[in-house]
UniProtKB/TrEMBL annotation:
Keywords: Oxidoreductase. Pfam families: Aldo_ket_red (PF00248). It comes from the Bacteria. The keyword Oxidoreductase applies. It comes from Nonomuraea salmonea. This is Aldo/keto reductase. Residues 16-306 form the NADP-dependent oxidoreductase domain. InterPro entries: Aldo-Keto_reductase, NAD(P)_OxRdtase_dom_sf, NADP_OxRdtase_dom.
Length: 327
């Protein structure tokens, strides 16, 4: 496992982390607690030191499980969690989640579930449209000063919002969706991160599983899997996207890698820290191995030509999901 500094002055983390949304039930289908535990332990055993979760994953279930598993391992891990991502029955963000009083309450609840006295990296999950980002950052800066959190992160914000936030307090990491199947951040968000010294964390680095090599059609998705409502997994769109994934798999075969490892190694090559999630221990170990893969420029060129920006069919989320993003 390789290790990198997150941002200009952030913590040292494994070049590839573990995204713990998949540890919560009713996300990508059912997952048993023993299965989720073994997946997380396998990642840690493979050298992963960066674990990412959020208070909304399984209504706190993911944080609770991580808190239990990390007993005895806490000081070995850079632990990240998020607040401010709750939505109503129509999928609209609940207003007020960026207000200082909410930030403090949310952190206290996460600390309790995680069984820890501090969060290493605390993200605003979604920008609160009712609260200026400067006000939220001020509250987070106070939590850093108090020692309750070590570093501040933002998720799915624009380059303009990132600059406003950094003017109040350093932002250590920006997390957003980024993969061969979603390269939009390359336009302005990634350059802004480089300019400001902000680390870039890529969630859904396998295109929500499309680049994992196992999805062949809607029948590959369990009942209750939220991706059944995602535009990229609808009939027609999914056929096109599986074709693209198969093209990537073909190149992966040529260079002697599993397709998921090739897709993750591309992100590491691009300077991102991907946080793939999985419910299976064997996948966690295989994903971690991607951090040590070195890609030559010819392979990178061919890979990016196979899935150029805009090639993927369908939006990355439905209208309600997209409305909650700061673009």
């Amino acid at each position: 496992m390789r290790y990198v500094t997150l941002g200009r002055e952030g913590p040292t983390v494994s070049a590839l982390g573990f995204g713990a949304m998949t540890l919560a039930p009713r996300v990508y289908g059912d997952v048993s607690e023993p299965e989720a535990t073994q997946a997380l332990l396998a990642a840690l055993d493979a050298g992963v030191t960066f674990v990412d979760t959020a208070d909304i994953y399984g209504a706190g279930h993911s944080e609770t499980l991580i808190g239990r598993v990390l007993r005895g391992h806490r000081d070995e891990v850079v632990l990240a969690t998020k607040f401010g991502g709750n939505s109503d029955d129509q999928g609209r963000l609940v207003p007020g989640m960026g207000r200082p009083e909410y930030v403090r309450r949310a952190l206290e609840a996460s600390l309790d579930r995680l069984r820890t006295d501090r969060v290493d990296l605390y993200y605003l999950h979604r920008l609160d449209p009712t609260t200026p980002v400067e006000e939220t950052m001020g509250a987070l800066a106070e939590l850093v000063q108090a020692g309750d959190i070590r570093y501040v992160g933002l998720s799915e914000v624009s380059a303009a919002t990132l600059r406003r936030a950094c003017a109040v307090h350093p932002v250590t990491a920006l997390q957003t969706e980024y993969s061969l199947f979603h390269r939009y951040p390359e336009q302005d968000v990634r350059p802004a991160c480089d300019e400001l010294g902000v680390g870039f964390v890529a969630y859904s680095p396998l295109g929500r599983g499309l680049l994992g090599g196992t999805i062949r059609g809607r029948g590959s998705l369990e009942e209750g899997d939220w991706r059944r409502g995602n535009p990229r997994f609808q009939e027609g769109n999914l056929d096109r996207n599986v074709e693209l994934a198969d093209a990537v798999a073909g190149l992966a075969g040529e260079v002697g890698l599993p397709v998921a490892q090739l897709a993750l190694a591309w992100l590491v090559h691009r300077g991102a820290v991907p946080i793939p999630g999985t419910r299976r221990a064997e996948n966690a170990r295989a994903n971690a191995a991607a951090a040590d893969v070195t890609l030559d420029e010819e392979t990178v060129r061919r890979l990016e030509a196979l899935v150029p920006p805009g090639a993927v069919a369908g939006e990355r989320g439905n209208a309600a999901y997209l409305a909650n993003l700061d673009t």
